[in-house]
Amino acid sequence: MLNNFLMLLPFMNEARAELVINGFFPMVKATILVSIPLAIVSFFFGMIIAVTIALIRITPQRGWFHRISLIIVKLYISIIRGTPMLVQISIVFYGLPAIGIFIDPIPAAIVGFSLNVGAYGSETVRAAIQAIPKGQWEAGYTIGMSYLQTFRRIIAPQACKVAIPPLSNSFIGLFKDTSLASIVTVTEMFRVAQQIANASYDFLPVYIEAGLIYWCFCFFLFVLQNKIESHLNRYIAH
């Protein structure tokens, strides 16, 4: 039945239909076992970096160590935002061995993605925190909370509500960007598609199929994003 449906497409023939059917499960398997875990792990470490940098930037300046930290994080953000992710991943995997640092493909991809997410995510987190009225901070201090207690109990939950939509979009973008890991020999979904296409010398149907698989998984992530936002809105309301 599926073969008959594919044959209805204008660019499809019997050989291409068989190629698409045979390539579907290997690509889906690579998406589930490699692409999605790669995105989740990279996003997790990236958000640790992002929150740390955001807190450094919003905390009132105290001493020379904080001033130096601010200079370092601003330089880091400028470098990451001013260079392509492809270059960043290539430097981690292909460039660092020149100075004696060797990183395996998957850890190299995680490092590259995490650094990128950390830089962009820090701006989102910082903006979300600064969007909370200063009166919320003062309310926490009034009832005897410390700076960290006020942030954790009052500011952070409200900032999460502001930050979740853009950060969710960042995660979906990161999932699509995992295709860049193919350049450092990580066998994620797009690399599997490349291998199938290279073996058959027929690229159009395989790459269209890869695009549709990305779209299907992204659609699921869009639905999940909406559910998380709704749940968070109910939590904040109570």
TrEMBL record:
Among SUPFAM superfamilies, the record links this protein to:
MetI-like
- What Pfam families does this protein map onto? BPD_transp_1
Compartmental location: Cell inner membrane; Cell membrane
Record carries keyword Transmembrane helix: yes
What InterPro entries does the database record attribute to this sequence? AA_ABC_transptr_permease_3TM, ArtM/GltK/GlnP/TcyL/YhdX-like, MetI-like, MetI-like_sf
Which Gene3D superfamilies is this protein grouped with?
MetI-like (1.10.3720.10)
Residue ranges crossing the lipid bilayer per the database entry: 33-56, 68-96, 204-224
Task: Give UniProt keywords alphabetically.
Answer: Amino-acid transport, Cell membrane, Membrane, Transmembrane, Transmembrane helix, Transport
Q: What protein is this chain from?
A: Amino acid ABC transporter permease
> Origin organism of this chain?
Seminibacterium arietis
The lineage is: Bacteria, Pseudomonadati, Pseudomonadota, Gammaproteobacteria, Pasteurellales
